[in-house]
Every structure is written in C-alpha cells, then in structure tokens.
Design a protein that fits this description.
alpha/beta, globular, 11-stranded mixed sheet, binds zinc ion, two-stranded antiparallel ribbon
Length: 308
C-alpha cells in the first residue's frame, strides 16, 4: 500500500484505513482490538515502528536535539508529492511521524503546500492523531506575542486549495461544527497549565490564502469574528477529519496583525518564533506521553456519522 515508498529498509505498519470510504471501527471493543493489532504487529516485526501520532510542523518546530529520527519515508500519493519525506522516530519515548509542512528549507509557501498528499501520507504510515504547531498573528489585544493558542474554531478565507478527498462520484459532507479533537485539546491545555506556559484554550483562527499579509481593512474585518490569523490551517484540519484522524492546532502568536497599526514583517515574526518555539517543544514533550492509545473522542467515527 505504500505507493512509491523509496525506503524499503524500514518496516512500518500497514495502513489501518487508507480509503476514506471505508468505515472505521468505533465501538470500545473495536478500538481495543485496533490498538492490540498495532502492538502485535510491532512485536512480530520487531523493527516495526507504528507511530499513531503525527506532527505536521511549521518553521522552528523540528529540532534534531528533541526528535530521535530512526528513518525517513518518501512516498508518492494519488494526490501528488508530499511536502517532504516523513521522518519516523521518537520524541522522548513516544513514537512520532514528523512532516515539515513547508518542506526542508521552507521552500513551499502556504498556498503551495499539498495538504491532501500530506494528510493521505500520514494516514498511510498509521497516524491516527495529528498535532499541528503553526505560527499566527493576533487579532485581539489579549492574544499576545509568545502566547500559545489551542484553537477550537476556524473560518476559511482561502481561495484556491483542494478541500476534500471526496471529489465524486460519491458525495460526502462531514460535520465540522467542532473541527478539533476535544480530547487532544484538553490534554494540551492541562500540559500548558502544568508548565506555566501562557496560552488560550479556545480561539478562532481565520485562515487566509496568502502569501501576502492582510490589508488594514481586511484585518479590521477579521477582528470582528476571529482571534488569530494564519495561512495553513485550512484545508489541513478538515482533510484530517475526512480521514477520521484527531487534529489539534498549537498556534504560536508571533505578532499583532496590521489592525494594531504595526507593520507586519517577516523578520519580527521569525524573531518572536525563535524566542518562543521552545514552549511548543516543551508542551509536545510533556503532553504526547499522556495521549491515550484508546480514543476518548469521536474523531474516528466522522464518516459513519456523515453516512459515508
Ligand atoms: Zn479525537
């Protein structure tokens, strides 16, 4: 099932469910069976790593001092190339799959990221839960540079992206009233509280097309209904939902958007990010071991609820 996988030296779990049209298991017993199968496969193959947690990271998240990378997988997908090879390894004792959203060297601007390929590939390596660190601008005084926002809503102002795996003939309308995983959000909130990291549990992220920043008029309008602004959350979040994966966003505030009468410049954003990215790494390191194998959420039954 790993189409075009170039590295055949790494044994990985077969995909649990590569086709979005296949209903996932959903009963508690089924979930235990799923987890048992994953562990059994690891025991049988010995070298097999089966990360159920995937990190799609933006600038500054990947740190070779933190991630112990065991191997990398390059794959082609029915939707084209991923942003980069997926690194399989460990963060502490937790197996993770890591994919740099913008590619190594940050060569892909937000509107050029192949979100469908990235999410599809993560599903192929067995990922069930995605953590998505990203950088955002603030639309509200109370969301200060350096704060972490555990986003709970989004608004979509993108224009040219591929938004679904269901391009027909089958039509599927997934529910998106609460697009983020409540279980994961709660775990990251508890971790941030424990670590004393200034953060917000809940916040609305308005996603714009980019790559340009907003005009002042646009920024003032967005302030009426959103807390932070960025360019990458959509369609990544909804595609993960279509694959019945948990999705949570750790958004780091890097600046006040232009409504605050400050010019937004890339140098300031990068400086704030480099000064605060350790907070995201600390949260990940502490929170990932606390994520249970058996889901306490309903993210893995979204298609069933959509009648797919
Ligand atoms: Zn979930």
């Amino acid at each position: 099932m790993l189409r075009g996988a170039k590295n055949d030296s790494l044994d990985i779990c077969p995909p649990i469910n590569a086709e979005p049209s296949i209903a996932m298991t959903s009963s508690p017993d089924d979930k235990r069976l799923l987890t048992g199968n994953r562990l059994l496969l690891k025991q049988i193959t010995r070298r097999t790593m089966c990360p159920s947690i995937g990190i799609i990271g933006g600038t500054g998240i990947y740190d070779p001092e933190v991630f112990d990378i065991v191997d990398t997988i390059s794959m082609s997908t029915p939707y084209g190339a991923t942003s980069d090879a997926i690194s399989i390894g460990r963060l502490g004792e937790v197996e993770v799959a890591f994919l740099p959203r913008h590619g190594t060297g940050h060569v892909l601007p937000p509107h050029m990221v192949n979100y469908r390929a990235n999410i599809w590939a993560m599903k192929q390596v067995g990922v069930e839960r995605i953590v998505s660190p990203c950088a955002v601008g603030s639309l509200q005084e109370g969301f200060e540079p350096g704060d972490i926002v555990i986003v709970d809503q989004f608004m979509d102002f993108t224009k040219t992206r591929d938004y679904t795996f269901f391009d027909g003939p089958k039509t599927v309308h997934i529910g998106c009233a609460d697009p983020f995983c409540p279980e994961m959000n709660a775990i990251f909130d508890q971790t941030a509280n424990r670590l004393g990291v200034s953060h917000h549990l809940g916040g609305t992220y308005v996603c714009i097309e980019g790559p340009r920043f907003s005009t002042r008029a646009e920024s003032r309008m967005y302030r009426g209904f959103a807390d932070v602004i960025g360019m990458t959350l959509v369609p990544e979040c909804q595609l993960a939902r279509e694959m019945e994966m948990c999705y949570t966003s750790l958004a780091m505030v890097t600046d006040y958007d232009v409504w605050a009468e400050h010019a937004v410049d890339t140098a300031t954003i990068l400086r704030t990010m480099s000064e605060n990215v350790h907070k995201v790494r600390d949260i990940l390191t502490d929170a990932l071991p606390r994520i249970p194998d058996i889901h306490g959420c309903d993210c893995d039954r979204i298609l069933r609820e959509a009648g797919a």
